[in-house]
Structure formats: structure tokens, C-alpha cells
Amino acid sequence: MSQQPAGGDGDDGSARYVFRATVRLDPDRPDLTAEPSTVETVLYKEAAQPGDDGWLFFRDNCWRGELNDPAFFRTETEDALGVPVDDVRFQELQTDETYHAALKAAIADDLALFNAESVTEVLRKYLGSSIRVTSE
């Protein structure tokens, strides 16, 4: 997961998924404790360009702006971070205007893929109101 901000790196725009995770600090030594024993952190996952491999991450992992399988995603986050994760929540898709337009165009090209009648329906169905578009 990346710490780089969404921004206009290229002509295709950019976006990232933002998550909040609560990680557990559980020292392996009996003479060592951590206070607080849990810490909340923000994680960023770069969004694939619309049409590229992985661009359907939102469809496969989100429903109405929430993770559709929190236990699975918590396990995936533990594996990625190498620490116990008590909780992970999807916060938003941060995107620039160029990426947002490309995303909507890719969705419009195949609405059947989303079992929907409009781009707006797709975005609401999977991301709810959790999209933040920034100017480039």
C-alpha cells in the first residue's frame, strides 16, 4: 500500500483507495508492553487505471461504500502489514478529475458488467458517497 497522494502524474490521472485500519501492537517479549496496544492508521492503495488489470477493485471489494467482506480484507491487510489488524474500513476513493472521467467512461462502456442501468447507479452501488474528486 502506497503513501503517495492522488494527483495528476500523467495524462490518465490517478486515484487511490483510502482505508482506516486499527493495528495491534503485540510484542513477542514478556518483559515488553505497548500502550496503547492498538493504533489507528490510514492506508492507501493505488487504483489501477480503468480498463487495466485490477481496475474492478471497487466492484469486487466494496458495497455501498463499505467493504463487502471485512474479515477477508482484515486478513489481507494483516498479510500486507505483517501485524495483527483488529479492524479495517474503507473510507473513500480519492481521485483527480481525469481519472474520475476515465472511470466513468470505462463503466459506461460495459454497464452489464455491473448489472446496472447507469454510471451513477454503479458508483452509488459500490462506492456510495465515498468518492472525493480533487482538481488537478
Produce the secondary structure layout.
Elements: E1 15-24, E2 38-46, H1 57-61, E3 62-63, E4 66-67, H2 70-81, E5 85-96, H3 97-109, H4 119-127, E6 131-134
Helix pairs in contact: 3-4
- Look at the helices and sheets and give the structural class: alpha+beta
Largest sheet: 4 strands, mixed
Task: Give the rounded overall mean pLDDT.
Answer: 92
Order of strands, main sheet, comes to 2-1-5-6
Total separate domains? 1
Protein name: LWR-salt protein
Organism: Halomicrobium mukohataei
InterPro entries: LWR_salt
Describe the fold and architecture:
The protein has 136 residues and is of the alpha+beta class. The protein has one domain. It is built from four helices and six strands. The protein has helices at 57-61, 70-81, 97-109, 119-127, and strands at residues 15-24, 38-46, 62-63, 66-67, 85-96, 131-134. The strands form two sheets. The protein has a four-stranded mixed β-sheet with strand order 2-1-5-6. Strands 3-4 form a two-stranded antiparallel sheet. Helix 3 packs across helix 4. The longest helix has 13 residues, at 97-109. It is elongated and about 60 Å long. This is LWR-salt protein.
Descriptive key words:
single chain, four-stranded mixed beta sheet, 136 residues, two-stranded antiparallel ribbon, elongated, 6 strands, disordered N terminus, 4 helices, alpha+beta
Brief sketch in words of this structure:
The chain is of the alpha+beta class and 136 residues long. The protein has helices at 57-61, 70-81, 97-109, 119-127, and strands at 15-24, 38-46, 62-63, 66-67, 85-96, 131-134. The protein is built from 4 helices and 6 strands, in the order E-E-H-E-E-H-E-H-H-E.
